[in-house]
Amino acid sequence: MGASRDPAKVGHQVLRNLKASGFTGKLFPVNPRVREILGLIAYPSLEEISDRVDLAVVIVPAIAVPRVIDQCDGAGVSAAVIMSGGFREIGAEGEKIEQDLRDTLKRTKVRVIGPNCTGVDNPHIGLCMWLPLRKHGYISVVTQSGTVASAIKCWAENEGLGIAKCVTLGNRIDIDETDLLRYLGDDPLTRVIALYLESVSDGTRFLKAASDVSKRKPILALKGGRTQPGARAAVTHTRSIVGDDQIFQAAMKQCGVIRVQTTEELYDSSKALSYLTLPSGPNVLIVTSSGGSAILAADVCSDMGLELPPLTRSTEKTLRQKLPGYCIFSNPFDLTTTTADQFRVVVEENIHDPMIHAFLLIFGDPLLGASEVVDSFRPSTEKPIIVAYLGGGDVEDKERAIMHSRGIPVFPSPERAAQALGVLLVRSEYLREED
Amino acid sequence: MGASRDPAKVGHQVLRNLKASGFTGKLFPVNPRVREILGLIAYPSLEEISDRVDLAVVIVPAIAVPRVIDQCDGAGVSAAVIMSGGFREIGAEGEKIEQDLRDTLKRTKVRVIGPNCTGVDNPHIGLCMWLPLRKHGYISVVTQSGTVASAIKCWAENEGLGIAKCVTLGNRIDIDETDLLRYLGDDPLTRVIALYLESVSDGTRFLKAASDVSKRKPILALKGGRTQPGARAAVTHTRSIVGDDQIFQAAMKQCGVIRVQTTEELYDSSKALSYLTLPSGPNVLIVTSSGGSAILAADVCSDMGLELPPLTRSTEKTLRQKLPGYCIFSNPFDLTTTTADQFRVVVEENIHDPMIHAFLLIFGDPLLGASEVVDSFRPSTEKPIIVAYLGGGDVEDKERAIMHSRGIPVFPSPERAAQALGVLLVRSEYLREED
User: Fold this and answer.
1) B21 close contact with A: CB closer than 8 A
2) Does B262 contact A236 at a Cβ distance shorter than 8 Å?
3) ipTM
4) pLDDT tens, residue by residue, A315-332
5) pTM of the entire structure?
């Protein structure tokens, strides 16, 4: 609704993105003034479409939106994503239109996402509105910021991992984060739910839903407005009255939601939780060819409550027989100069050690075959093997692409890998307490 | 010295990297057993080379290194980078060879970097040993970890910004971080010195040199081993006795060295300090099309001591005439949906406001022309304009590449941009105090 032939208009871009994402269903551009848009027959109105329509994407001017929703209802379209802006976010005039829209919703059966949002994405069926996405994965995003969503989508797309579903809430006049938590909690393609919120629309409902869902699926929350200046900005952005940050923190902890501090941490933690198993305890063995990187990782491990137990004497003895004398037979285990196979030897000797709950492999410098090594342990272990790769130039790019194509997440620095591993520990400890 | 025809050997890779980096001088592979390596005439020994040799790159087995240094001295080669490993890092046997090497150095005029290092880089003349680098820039790196150096080199190379010089210290038997601070302090191509250290070899000398150099050039330090587990790992990595972290922190502050916490922060801060002017005060105007990103940036600004003053009434009045009513006329200034030119209007109206010391522009979503806007202010202002770009897909990639080609650093998230801006403030406040 509001499809356009003008490439500068959102009503054009959304249609183009749906096509570029390979949407598997049928698309019906609605525009009374043209016959064809982007090679598709344009319909003068919803009523002219003879197929059953599952979802209306609404991009008409705000003032026309309530009428369009009525049309949807008349045509039996029960779901709409309203991308149009011009509602309460622009002040008194828009507030009035938004009230009209609320009234319309009360007398219709249409359920609405938005208005003033940047759409929804389901790349598994090629339904991507704001950016064309070709990859699909297991991270689902629910957000009060279109850009935070787009950032995560772009990072996941560029890494070849993709996302599962994304919903930008906009003014959340109807469907809110709590509805989506419940929905995504039951969605088999969603392994982790990543939230960006400035406020919650209904605290009590949210806490109940989050408590339920987080028992079976991890929920991450990035909160905008944790400081005074940020909170002031949140009021103007989404009219969010941001409460005391410590209260938010305590509430999230209570309902099992893991709080992160930055956009990148939201993505990294989502990656780790989607693709890695959980450690059954805090003990990590760091294996590396880069002593410096391992130290930086050890520092962050310590911050996150992870521990680096020493090698057992028998393991150390075996490894001293199998590996060059210049290795540092400790934890971190530093192979110094190395081949990928030497990484394999170290992991192999420790993989059944009950005192090691997770492995952090830090590949530094160009090292071919890193992907093979990591891959070879996956069928035989429940322990997470988390990978950082840095300083490897073209070889790193190639190995990272291979690992991502196999669902092995790779982190770009030792600190980010250790941080993500810390989040896995938080999640596993939460589940153990709940048990 | 120790050049090889075997692609698996470092003695081959270094030669290949020097060629691939476009080294502007002459290369003389030395290997007594072959006539040609990588299309270059190989020399049986240093004495056979008739040209004057400026630098020896030593990659022979450790046991042969003292003799090679004697040969360098005999041939009038006064500088050597010893990449060979097998010295004190491997234990007692290597310790003995290292002592031999120290004795050799005492009786020769050769100055040495290493041993057990991953070489040096000067991409301005194509002298790059560990990775081939084609870009050159203004960040210089001095490091106890080859991989931390490589990571920064790869990031700078991939962004097209490049580095100025890089030295990996290895066992720092002769030249240490203090020598390099003084050298880089006087190097006209070095705008910022980025250090990764686990310890300093001589605290008193270091503090003196850092105090001198930081008066004219910013120095950044990432310290490995700030926690107990990290410190333990540092002992095995570089035999570094890591002192109390708070003492290190206080010492760095006293001599004007800016401490950072992660590898990425070291790179981000280096980028900002190399390419941006310093703010004359803490007041930032955030201009954005992404309200959520601006809130996240505002939170980090607040952490970093940056302030977000309100718009003046006259500026707000002017902007209300020039821009759509749905903008949020505040700080952050949120254009919501926007064109690049609307960013220009907001910056233009505030550029001469003495209460605004810096601009943080956050481009979210695909926005063409972002680079033009930022570029247009550079000739006319001393105020830093720091850019974050995220969620923009292909358009973002293109605009980022243009900005980097023009020396405008772009940060991948609002938090990282705000953090980097905070570092600029720290630097400017230090210089003001020193004044």
Assistant:
1) no
2) no
3) 0.95
4) 999 999 999 888 889 999
5) 0.96
